[in-house]
Design a protein that fits this description.
This protein has 245 residues and is of the alpha/beta class. The protein is 47% helix and 15% strand. The protein has nine helices and ten strands. A six-stranded mixed β-sheet has the order 1-2-3-5-7-10, with helices on both faces. The protein has a four-stranded mixed β-sheet with strand order 4-6-8-9. β1 and β2 form a beta hairpin. α1 packs parallel to α2 and α2 runs parallel beside α3. The chain is globular and about 55 Å long.
């Protein structure tokens, strides 16, 4: 079962760590709930200036846990919570990110990934689509790149992720690259951070408010389809789905 490690605090920065390497930090219903609760705590804590979201193991997040998936409304609420949190959320990525994990990453304000990170939107290969995670992703990433990677499910590296706007920066040493970012956040006033974040997230939040229910319905219809059942069964059985030629 996915779990969140106890929060760590350092000079105004709270680190939340996805800590279930055995299932590649997949987003289970339990993990989504734990992360939402932890973010609520950060929002209410005046000593927290910003949040770092990171992981243990070689995977940041493998997407939805197909054995214990979160309710789509809960996943959308979690992504919106990250976007709307009055404190910056910074993603620190040193491993792989797949499918719904990109939605989590896309909701963050600033993100850095290292040379060991790879990314893929694999939903189309399962008979699904990156429906609800489009809410934070499509307002932020290059449209041509979105078309390519949504359709093909290809893997790409941190340099490409930075080029298309999925992450803020690619770096050989992630912690070294994030050090000036975190120092800058520590120097900013709480009010200044909240007001500035409100400006840069307005378009993303508007996308949530206008399209969330439609995309949740689309996602539910896809998950209930015979084609998606075949895709997910093939994935769990480690075989090619029937449609692969």
């Amino acid at each position: 079962m996915s779990r969140l490690a106890p929060p760590a605090h350092d000079r105004g920065i709270t680190t939340l760590t996805l800590d279930s390497p055995a299932n590649r930090n997949a987003l289970s219903a339990a993990l989504v709930g734990e992360l939402a609760t932890a973010l609520d705590g950060c929002a209410a804590d005046d000593t927290v200036r910003a949040v770092v979201l990171t992981h243990t193991g070689n995977t940041f997040c493998a997407g939805a846990d197909l054995t214990a998936p979160p309710d789509p409304h809960a996943l959308v609420a979690l992504m919106r919570q990250i976007v709307a949190l009055p404190k910056p959320v910074v993603a620190r990525v040193t491993g792989h990110v797949r499918a719904g994990g990109l939605g989590l990453l896309g909701a963050c304000d600033i993100s850095a990934a290292g040379p060991g990170a790879t990314f893929a939107l694999t939903e189309s290969r399962l008979g699904l689509a990156p429906a609800v995670i489009s809410l934070p992703l499509l307002p932020r990433i290059d449209p041509r790149a979105a078309a390519r990677y949504y359709l093909t499910g290809e893997r790409f590296d941190a340099t490409e992720a930075a080029r298309i706007g999925l992450i803020t920066l690619a770096a050989e040493e992630v912690d070294k690259a994030l050090a000036p970012v975190l120092d800058g956040l520590r120097k900013a006033s709480p009010q200044g951070l909240a007001a500035s974040k409100e400006l840069v997230t307005a378009t993303v939040l508007k996308n949530f408010d206008q399209h969330a229910e439609d995309l949740i319905a689309r996602s539910a219809a896809l998950f209930a389809s015979a084609e998606a059942r075949e895709g997910m069964t093939a994935f769990l059985e480690r075989r090619e789905p029937a449609w692969v030629s």
